[in-house]
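Reviewers of the previous submission asked for a worked example of the structure-prediction workflow described in the proposal, so we include one complete record here. The input consisted solely of the amino acid sequence. No template or homolog information was supplied to the procedure at any stage.
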Amino acid sequence: MKHLFYLAILLLFISCENKEQKAREVLSKAQEQYNRQEYFGAKQTLDSLKIKYPKEFPVLKEGQFLFKKVELAEQTRNLHYCDSMIQVKMPEVEPLKKDFIYERDTAYEETGKYIYKTQRIELNVQRCYIRSGVSESGEMFLSSVYYGSKPIKHEALRVSSKGDEYAQTNTIPPDGSNNYSFTDGGMTTETVTYTGGNDNGVILFIYNKAQAKNPVTATYVGEKNISIAMSEADKTVVMKTYDLSAALLEIEKLKKDKKTAEIKIAYLQEKMKDGEE
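From that input alone, the workflow returned the following structure tokens.
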């Protein structure tokens, strides 16, 4: 019986030793992937280590530390990529800004916006038109400006082209900010601004029609509907504003990704320092 007992103990020891050896082989594979900068593959291998050998605690602890090293290297690479791309993209934006003016009401606005030179308010009084602009962070907005002898109390804008193609904004009720009106000399001006996705595809519709040089009819949707033909100049402004918006949004995303990488790097460095201690 004693021989059987010792044999069982020996077999158990050999089994445990084999499991640890196999776990270390997986860890070694992850280390090699890390050395080759194959970070995604290294993380997958380390995940499989936890699944296959959940009780090999010393090996798992080494794997956890390696996982942090992999993530740190990955975030460092992301940081360098964002830095380099920001340096590339910034000069590309400047030529797009050349036909825009920068506006900011310091009393009410934390950030400013870019408006096309020909769409300055003082140059467009006493007319119905579609105004567009873009914030510093790249968010594009559209405004339907109505001017007439009687109020129409419009709350939305519909744009259409040949056939049955059309797009319509979300409804913006009067709020004194995004939908406001005033009367001067018996004439009414109404301005409704669509931001944060409330254009509901209208911006892209106009952009595509402007590129194709197709006519666009803009309809002010309210108590009384009024339609105007968008001028080629106003369609061009939407197209150029859209291009500037896309460029600014790309840079803004790179800046946010850079900030995220910096935060993760600081966190990982602190965790790794605690692990070493």
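The radius of gyration is 31 Å. We consider this example representative of the routine output the project will generate in years two and three.
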